[in-house]
Design a protein that fits this description.
heterodimer, A: about 500 residues, alpha/beta, Aldehyde Dehydrogenase, Chain A, domain 1, Aldehyde Dehydrogenase, Chain A, domain 2, six-stranded mixed β-sheet, 17 helices, B: about 500 residues, 3 domains, about 45% helix, globular, Aldehyde dehydrogenase (chain A), Aldehyde_DH_dom (chain A)
Chain lengths: ~500, ~500
């Protein structure tokens, strides 16, 4: 079990330790080991094996950290990770091939290509809500692209963090892949170093700190943040299916503690009661009459977050708007699925990402008004709409800006490896999943091949009007113009 | 005064946000009209542009056309013919499990863009990024460099006459204006300039989580393998001279910074270079032709200090004279200056070419790798395996074989740095992409809702999902059929 990555509790991981960590990884990277296809494949296969061999340990750790239901742990973390790994293994060879590009007459004769190369030594900072997936999925991208990588799992999910440290230490190439556990001091020490890329999943406040630290070294950064992901619900829909999908995308995702979970609903005043009734019926079907003891719901991750979420209900003007649920069990950090109707616009719940099992429903007279409401807030990571009205769908896609959009479902788009997953504005920058993971940890180097033949003297001094004419023609790509200039017309 | 300035800036930015919100910049007609307007502006005012660049940098009109006007026109024409294609959604593949569903990636403008322009290509590096931002449907503020004042005025006076002034603004000024601009919230910042200022821009942008593209520089080396054919050596000499002193007298991010060559070939190459220099720029250092001047006294003094450092002065083998009145420096070649001197540790950005000799040209790879990653690496060689080695073992924004500078006009290649030379890229479609957000869109229908997606959970659903993630459709079907016949189709059989 002895892994040299795990520091004994007494020694602290400070700036000195971080510096020598990066130096060691740079040495490994410079030696060229991580660039080979064989190495990348062997590491990805090890990740797959680690996941398969220790499925139960992972599920157990997720249960400890989040009371995550077994099936949710499997579906949203383990299966997603395995799928991502297998997809990458299948496609990697193709992704590594240089891309030939066209050249124009301006640079004739020449040939050109874009060569993907690893950035070098990269840092992945993970989050607590999908602590297994959000640690290893970016690591898959980093390794596939040929980098050496340091993973800093979230300390708020400690069981998963130490399991990752243990397992990666056993299965992976320790000279190139390292796990550093810890909290703010360790993360700060890491952020002081010069990385070739930083990939951060978390919230906007820390995102700013990461970006500012990266600026000192001109390190490019990917930020996967969150936002208030809205769900617009029209009346012309299949109500039962809609209700189920909303529930799956809200309480079925770590009990609302997910960056893409449905934050709030926007629907018409007329339709709201029907929607609420349908949600209530399906909620009982899914979680029974005593949701606080249901095995199929995650708990709130920590007492800090429990206090944060319950505080959102503290306001009298808000508590009075509860139409379903509202109970909680502080000892077990459980909050029941709670629906609210028409809370005031200026309350805390409507101005912060909820990240919990409270679902406010906002009503409007016209659904078109919902676009304005959404656009008046910061751009979220995802936005959803349930409707069969083609024009409304098109208006939604055109006018709502978010990381990603999903029509008639919630959250599912993350499982598609062909769509880029990432935010915009306050919800983040950069994207990953599938090929986008490879790309985000890659430098696409432009390469131009020229020969000694075909030298246009018009490029060089002494400059003359004739050369000016030829240059004009050359740069415009106008063949007739070139010929005329060449023969001195 | 500063508060007034701040207020004025705030109002301009608010107006641009309002314009963006109105949706006017989204349609293809608006974007094309603005691109056409830039093309017309450059056509109508070619002489004024020649004049401004002559004033700011002493550039010859042919150099101006080659490096600035021509580049802008080519870029505008290319964008006009491609923008509609670039705007179209990209259809995405979908695994069968998602059926029925449709996925696509839809590019959309980021919103409000700030472009910082450097002083060395003050027209091209304003208008080219501007065209990228416009073709992507954004509103834009262009901040020209105060160190190229004639061009800055030209842009401030002329752009409003041709472009939609509610969507594109030019804001002139110095460091204080730049700092004020950085306090605003932008949806994207595009910066071309030095690493020092790049850090400041990125730090300020971090406060608003604003994505940035940094086009910086570095010491762009040229690896010169030993050539034997005199006609090839001649071409190489021209391209090296053209790539060092041609672009703004070496004051360019992709200009050759220093040259690596084998000891045995060095003197031959130096002779050819000297001949080429006198052909290109004339014999008289007091009256150099076809050469830009140094931008200002400050930069001139910086370069003078380098040349007058005794340890460096000792290595000058050609040129070295300075004309303080005209701010010109003669094309200068140095042979093996000390590697720890400023000239070999900082980006030169001037007409001084250090030549470093090696025993074997293969050593050039380690030499380059022990320094920060540059924006471009140039390599003159006919040895294919050496080319492959350079590509595999060095890292830079780009690599060009057997030529210099010309990768800049190749629209199909991304132009940008890595490491200390920056991140992000542009040119051609990459310009459009760098100012866009690629929004993922997944369309689902209500038809075929999968029960196993929902709780309450049980073993059947677990099994279903296992197979689903393997995209093992056969087993899914068997499972569905076998649900009633648990004994025959038990998980053990199917595993």
């Amino acid at each position: 079990m002895a892994s040299e990555d795990k520091k004994p509790k007494a020694a602290c991981f400070d700036g000195e330790a971080a510096r020598s960590l990066v130096t060691e990884l740079r040495k490994t990277f410079d030696a060229g080991k991580t660039k080979s296809y064989e190495w990348r494949v062997s590491q990805l296969k090890s990740l797959l094996k680690l996941t398969k061999d220790h499925e139960n340990d992972i599920i157990e750790a997720l249960r400890t950290d989040l009371s995550k239901p077994v099936l949710e742990a499997f579906v949203s973390e383990i299966a997603m990770l395995k799928s991502s790994c297998e997809f990458t293994l299948k496609q990697l060879k193709r992704w590594m091939v240089p891309e030939k590009v066209k050249t124009s007459i301006t640079t004739f004769p020449s040939s050109a290509e874009i060569v993907p190369e690893p950035l070098g030594v990269v840092l992945v900072i993970s989050a607590w809500n999908y602590p297994f997936l959000l640690s290893l999925d970016p690591v898959i991208g980093a390794i596939a692209a040929g980098n050496a990588v340091v993973l800093k799992p979230s300390e708020i999910a400690p069981a998963t963090s130490s399991l990752l440290a243990k397992l990666l230490g056993e299965y992976m190439d320790r000279s190139a892949v390292k796990v550093i556990e810890g909290a703010v001091p360790e993360t700060s020490a890491l952020l002081e170093q010069k990385w070739d890329k930083i990939f951060y999943t978390g919230n906007g406040k820390v995102g700013r700190i990461v970006l500012a630290a990266a600026a000192k070294h001109l390190t490019p950064v990917d930020l996967e943040l969150g936002g208030k992901c809205p769900v617009i619900v029209d009346s012309n829909i299949n109500l039962i299916v809609t209700a189920r999908r909303i529930i799956a995308g809200k309480w079925g995702m770590n009990n609302g503690q997910a960056c893409i979970s449905a934050d709030h609903i926007i629907t018409t005043k007329d339709f709201a009661p029907k929607l609420i009734d349908a949600l209530k019926v399906e909620l009982v079907k899914f979680y029974g009459n005593e949701p606080l003891v249901s095995e199929d719901l995650s708990r709130i991750v920590s007492s800090n977050h429990f206090a944060r979420v319950t505080k959102l209900l503290d306001d009298d003007k808000v508590a009075g708007k509860i139409v379903h649920g509202g109970q909680n069990d502080q000892n077990n950090l459980k909050i029941a699925p709670t629906i609210l109707l028409d809370v005031p616009e200026d309350c805390l719940m409507m101005n912060e990402e909820i990240f919990g099992p409270l679902l406010p429903i906002v009503t409007v007279n016209n659904l078109e008004d919902s676009f304005k409401i959404i656009n008046s807030r910061e751009k979220p990571l995802a936005a959803y709409i349930f409707t069969t009205n083609k024009r409304l769908k098109e208006a939604f896609v055109k006018n709502v800006s978010a990381g990603g959009l999903l029509i008639n479902d919630v959250a599912l788009h993350i499982a598609n490896p062909y769509l880029p997953f990432g935010g915009v504005g306050e919800s983040g920058m950069g994207s990953y999943h599938g090929r986008f993971s490879f790309d985000t940890f890659t430098h696409k180097k432009a390469v131009l091949y020229r020969s000694f033949a075909g030298d246009a003297s018009a490029r060089y001094p002494p400059y003359t009007p004739g050369k000016l004419k030829l240059l004009k023609a050359l740069l415009s790509g106008n063949i007739l113009g070139i010929i005329r200039a060449l023969i001195g017309w | 005064m500063e508060a007034e300035e701040g207020l004025r800036l705030g109002r301009s930015v608010a107006e641009l946000r309002e314009t963006f919100r109105s949706g006017r910049t989204r349609g293809v007609a608006w974007r094309k009209s603005q691109l056409r307007a830039i093309l017309k502006l450059v056509d109508d005012h070619e002489d004024a542009i020649f004049e401004a660049l002559h004033q700011d940098l002493g550039k010859h009109p042919v150099e101006v056309y080659r490096d600035e006007i021509g580049v802008v026109k080519k870029s505008a024409t290319n964008s006009l013919s491609c923008v509609e294609k670039w705007m179209a959604p990209k259809k995405g593949q979908l695994p069968l499990l998602f059926f029925p569903a449709r996925g696509e990636v839809l590019p959309e403008p980021l919103g409000l863009v700030l472009i910082f322009v450097p002083w060395n290509f003050p027209i091209a590096l304003a208008l080219d990024p501007l065209m990228g931002a416009i073709s992507a449907g954004n509103t834009v503020v262009v901040k020209p460099s105060e160190l190229a004042p004639a061009c800055s005025s030209f842009l401030a006076n002329t752009l409003p006459l041709y472009l939609d002034s509610k969507a594109v603004k030019v804001i002139e000024g110095g460091t204080d204006i730049s700092q004020q601009l950085l306090q605003q919230k932008w949806d994207k910042i595009f910066f071309t300039g030095s690493t020092r200022v790049g850090r400041i821009v990125m730090s300020e942008a971090a406060k608003h989580l604003t994505p940035v593209t940094l086009e910086l520089g570095g010491k762009c080396p040229i690896i010169l393998d030993t050539l034997s054919d005199p006609s090839e050596i001649k071409v190489a000499a021209k391209r090296i001279a053209g790539g060092k002193w041609g672009p703004c007298s070496g004051q360019a991010c992709i200009a050759i910074d220093y040259l690596l060559v084998e000891q045995k070939f060095a003197s031959t190459m130096i002779e050819f270079l000297k001949k080429t220099i006198s052909r290109f720029y004339g014999e008289n250092p007091k009256n150099l032709k076809n050469l830009s001047r140094i931008v200002n006294k400050h930069q001139f003094e910086r370069l003078r200090n380098i040349l007058e450092d005794p340890s460096i002065a000792a290595s000058i083998i050609h040129g070295g004279s300075l004309d303080e009145k005209n701010l010109t420096i003669e094309p200068t070649i140095l042979l093996n200056p000390p590697l720890d001197a400023d000239i070999m540790t900082e980006e030169i950005f001037g007409p001084l070419l250090p030549i470093i000799t090696l025993t074997n040209i293969q050593e050039s790879i380690e030499f380059i790798n022990s320094r920060p990653k540059p924006l471009a690496i140039y390599a003159f060689t006919k040895n294919d395996s050496f080319k492959k080695k350079i590509l595999a073992e060095t890292s830079s924004g780009s690599v060009t074989f057997n030529d210099t500078m010309i990768q800049f006009v190749c629209d199909s290649l991304p132009f940008g740095g890595v490491g200390q030379s920056g991140f992000g890229r542009y040119h051609g479609k990459y310009s459009f992409d760098t100012f866009s957000h690629e929004k993922a869109v997944l369309h689902r229908s209500f038809f075929l809702d999968l029960e196993p997606r929902y709780p309450p959970w049980n073993d059947f659903k677990m099994q279903f999902i296992r197979f689903a993630y393997m995209f093992d459709y056969l087993r899914i079907v068997l499972l569905l059929l076998g649900y009633k016949l648990k004994k025959i189709f038990s998980p053990g059989h199917l595993a």
